């Protein structure tokens, strides 16, 4: 009898193994890929279907959904706070400088949430939807795949000041950006690998104009920007006006997730100052840029690892937060 009980105990522990192997998050709970296997088995399939449709209709959407996850995780952790609209008690992070006129993809998240609420009401969090959508966007545009640890819950508040202070800006110094990453438990390897997401997507003229005309406040352009590339950029990004004009972050293969972003940096054709300084301002990041430029497989492998690590920033788990019915507002009690 005792022997039988021992076998049952071992089997029970093995059944819980995914919990243990995925590691404890800084938020105090566990995230693991099988979280919805029983409560909502079609969850990942539904997310992938809606994301694939959205990316097919708008090739920019993959980059937008990836960025949304990044901008969420760097503020109060990966808790879907960025999705909340303003209300009597909440000032939306959508109003913050890094998100205003640039964060997009909210309607895609709404569509996913609507489909999931029909399939399994109040089960899948908006925070997990964003983590899955970011992974699916990467895969759909040609990038690496990974198993997304799940089990996040949604916040009941937002932080505009957090968005303004914690999200790296295009004109931040290398040290400022690295400090912002380190505050989230991410290191220089994560910084370079995650910056590689700029292999897809666009940036507005206003986010790099200073490089073309007045990089250091002396009326001179950025000497680390290839001059023929700079001349091309000036044709659509004048000294004044055209703030919202869009430019590819990776002019070589703008809708394909690959390692050409790093090759561009080596050719001094990184669009944003925050991109180019990875190659020009730090010896360690410079070597990482070279490694990823020469070895796409290595970049893909590290990008997946760093995305999982970023997705583990202070998630709400257990009884913390809630599972929002509508990603744009907290539940009414």
Automatic annotation (TrEMBL):
Its EC number is 1.11.1.7. Transmembrane segments: none annotated. Ca(2+) 1 binds at residues 72, 75, 77, 79, 81, 93. Residues 1-22 form the signal peptide. It comes from Corchorus olitorius. Keywords: Calcium, Disulfide bond, Glycoprotein, Heme, Hydrogen peroxide, Iron, Metal-binding, Oxidoreductase, Peroxidase, Secreted, Signal. The record marks 67 as: Transition state stabilizer. Pfam families: peroxidase. The keyword Heme applies. This is Peroxidase.
